[in-house]
Design brief:
A hairpin with a 4-residue loop joins strand 3 and strand 4. Helix 2 runs parallel beside helix 3 and helix 5 packs across helix 7. The protein has an eight-stranded antiparallel β-sheet, with helices on one face. It is α+β, with helices and mostly antiparallel strands. The structure holds ligand MIG. The site of ligand MIG has 10 residues, from loops.
């Protein structure tokens, strides 16, 4: 194997909005996407189609550049890129010249066979966060990772790779922030100083170009906003998907599904969603129903609907080889499946037995797949769970020569699941004719937030996995994903009743709250744990429903800014060393106002680190000063959750599902503080795309402690709020704020 270097620049020209720099060995192009986003693409064989599955924006033609002796300087209003020409190196600075991130001066970018690698300077105090669903600590310094979407069944808390690929990380040093997105879908590698004696960080891929977007905005919020501008943001999810979801592999019959749903209503435990895992199908054939066990899907779904439940069904990519199966016949006739290089169809075994695999990279195949959902939408399914799309098959080792169109498996593996989710989203959105589909996918690539929610796959029923799962959720939140779930209770193995209770006290603060378990595991519904525990779990679920107005508004924030619901403390407390301490690294903000400290089930007090500011414990309104570690009780009935002073949290009274109208009272909870604070309240019908036509209800609620005034801003949008009464609930005020019931009031003076 030879090492090929990038070499010295021969020519530097400007062509169609890009700087084009040629060396004898390669060609580099530089584009500016915004003042804070610069793209560099270095290639030995420049690909003119320049296809990306992640990026949805186009470059701007807005930068200045000059070619000096040994370098080219490109400047935007926020950044300076210095390209050294001998040899070619790319170094990024703030506008006033502070280094943000630089090539390693010795090695820069080079190739070994098809592998392309970029070596970067490592700063002494540099930390790294990101890469989405990855094992390890919040600070990824000293770790290395591989992106290669994998059915990581039985994974531990150190397994790598897992199911998803998000080649985007954020670097922190010298009080400065930057982000780097390596948009390359081949198998890729990231090393944050792990195996370079702390001299360099490096990343690369098995093929393709050294194609990266550099984000130079200051502050992680701004970087996330830029990253999600570039790769898209989620749209408003159906409100019902934010309620409690009950899943299992599998509820084996329509009767069983209905029985469980009824029991939620009898016991008055709120819930919105029931799931059908693979056993609803006829011989695991996608888009079919088992005629014996699910004889009348429409009837079942209508009964569920009458109880206020939605149904989500699973689909896998593998299409069973079966002459009597229309999807198989059509897929073969139209050449929709992956092949060997000689044109034979590739076959592997998975649940249905011998299967073929749709080529989701082909738009016609995506259309066909999407349209096939009629078999599920006709009887009334509105949620579609995409599993096994790494893609997975028994043996887990798809041969590298398998072809998807003109590309081989290793080139497309990391985007396959995302393209399946895209096909599912577009297809079901069309068929549902104005209703929002709910899509959930296991495999993903950067940009998946535009189509789907994700969950973290097959975890285990241990305390350690509960904490790890939260870390994965928080890290996924740094990649544009916001609607994220973990299998509450643990997929493999059986939780102790205490763990089940504890996990359900965290559940209200997991963006997607879904209880799920593997085949053969104990039953997991809230009533399986004895009376006393059932009541605690019920309280947890009720907490989720109380918080829904806050949660929904917070998802609106995700759609506008790319900020996730569950936020590692690194987002807002970036320079506070304590938040990276492995004892506190799982703590997170849930929306703007709540700080949650996940804690194992076997202790009844715990150390919590409260960042700077004052905080109230949610359960008791007890006040604490931040910037210190506090030891607090954490009985199974009270997970440590804290509220920021000045916080405004709209809540509602308990309902049994999002389908219920409720009592029309919106409870504006306010915790006393010293500084003025505002919250953007958002509501729409939770079900359709009418919100895109201005049919929503949005207003800013402001609390000004100096003026002792709460202001309800002008309502934007034409949606009629489902709450016709407002009640202000004060916390931490001397004396009680009257629980005054207001109508559409603009401002309210309070006395305390
Ligand atoms: O080979 O559909 O991660 O959630 O219950 C296992 C059965 C296939 C893996 C998923 C899991 C699901 C299970 N699936």
């Amino acid at each position: 194997m030879q090492l090929e270097i990038l070499g010295n620049a021969d020519t530097v020209t400007y062509q169609n909005g890009a700087l084009v720099i040629k060396t004898p060995q390669a060609e580099a192009r530089v584009w500016v996407y915004s003042p804070t986003i610069i793209r560099v693409c270095i290639s030995k064989d420049f690909n003119h189609s320049d296809e990306s599955f992640a990026v949805i924006e186009k470059p701007l033609d807005d930068f200045t550049w000059q070619h000096l002796n040994d370098r080219v300087e490109l400047t935007t209003s926020a950044l300076k890129l210095i390209v050294h020409t001998n040899p070619l190196r790319f170094n990024f600075y703030t506008a006033d010249g502070k280094p943000l991130s630089e090539d390693d001066a010795r090695f820069g970018t080079n190739w070994q066979a098809e592998r392309v690698i970029n070596y970067r300077k490592l700063y002494t105090d540099e930390k790294f966060i990101g890469l989405g669903e990855k094992a390890g600590d919040l600070n990824r310094r000293g770790c290395n990772y591989v992106n290669w979407n994998t059915d990581a069944a039985m994974h531990t808390i150190t397994t790598d790779p897992l199911y998803k690929t998000f080649p985007f990380f954020i670097g922190l040093h010298s009080g400065l922030t930057y982000g780097l997105f390596f948009d390359n879908m081949h198998k890729s590698y990231f090393d944050f100083g792990a195996t370079t004696d702390e001299q360099m960080s490096w990343f690369g891929a098995d093929g393709g170009d050294m194609n990266y977007y550099f984000f130079g905005a200051q502050g992680i919020r701004n970087i996330l906003e830029d990253y999600t501008w570039l790769t898209g943001r989620m749209e408003m999810p159906p409100l019902w998907s934010l309620g409690y979801q009950q899943c299992r592999w599998s509820y084996m019959s329509a009767n069983e599904v209905l029985e469980v749903a009824r029991k939620f209503r009898q016991k008055q435990i709120p819930a919105d969603v029931m799931y059908c895992d693979i056993d609803y199908m006829d011989g695991y054939k996608i888009f079919t129903w088992n005629k014996e066990t699910f004889p009348d899907p429409k009837g079942m779904i209508e009964e569920l609907r009458a109880m206020g439940f939605k149904l989500v069904t699973i689909v896998d990519p593998g299409i069973k080889i079966d002459e009597n199966y229309p999807e198989y016949k059509e897929g073969v006739d139209k050449h929709y499946f992956a092949t060997y290089p000689n044109g034979e169809l590739y076959t592997a075994r998975v649940w249905p037995g011998r299967c073929h695999f749709p080529d989701f990279l082909n738009e016609e195949v995506r259309e066909w797949w999407g349209a096939s959902f009629k078999a599920l939408t006709d009887p009334g399914v509105e949620g579609f769970w995409n599993d096994m799309n790494e893609p997975a098959a028994w043996g887990q080792n798809m041969p590298w020569m398998v072809k998807f169109g003109d590309k081989f498996m290793p080139e497309i593996r990391n985007v396959y699941g995302m393209q399946m989710a895209r096909a599912t989203y577009n297809g079901t959105k069309r068929i549902l004719n104005g209703k929002r589909p709910f899509i959930l996918t296991r495999a993903a690539y950067a940009g998946t937030q535009r189509y789907s929610a994700v969950w973290t796959g097959d975890n285990a029923a241990t305390d350690e996995h509960m904490l790890f799962g939260q870390r994965l959720v928080n890290s996924l939140g740094l990649t544009g994903m916001s609607l994220i779930g973990v299998d509450i209770g643990g997929f493999m193995g059986n939780p102790t009743p205490e763990l089940m209770v504890r996990w359900n006290s965290l559940g209200p603060y997991v963006p997607m709250y879904r209880n799920h378990a593997a085949l053969g595991m104990t039953m997991r519904e809230p009533w399986q744990w004895g009376d006393e525990y059932e009541q605690i779990i019920k309280k947890g679920i009720e907490q989720r429903y109380k918080l829904l107005p806050y949660i929904y508004s917070s998802f609106y924030q995700s759609t506008q800014t790319g900020l996730p619901l569950s936020r590692t403390l690194a987002i807002d407390y970036t320079w506070d060393e304590n938040i990276f301490d492995t004892r506190y690294q799982n703590q997170f903000l849930f929306g703007d106002a709540l700080l949650v400290a996940p804690v194992i089930s076997t202790v009844d007090n715990v150390d919590v680190y409260l960042p700077i500011g004052d905080w109230y414990r949610l359960g008791s309104d007890e006040k604490f000063s931040g910037g210190q570690v506090i030891n607090v009780p954490c009985p199974l009935t009270d997970l440590p959750v804290f509220v920021k002073t000045g916080a405004i949290i709209p809540m509602q009274n308990i309902i049994q599902s999002t389908n219920e109208v409720g009592d029309g009272v919106l409870l504006i909870n306010i915790w006393n503080g010293n500084e003025i604070n505002a919250f953007i309240y958002y509501e729409d019908d939770g079900l359709t795309y009418d919100n895109e036509n201005g049919i929503y209800y949005k207003r800013t609620i402001t609390f000004d402690p100096q003026k002792k005034e709460i202001t309800f801003g002008e309502v934007e949008g034409s949606y009629q709020s489902k709450y016709d009464k407002l009640q202000v609930v004060g916390h931490g005020f001397d004396g009680v704020i009257d629980r005054e019931t207001l109508n559409d009031t603009q401002s309210l003076m309070i006395s305390y």
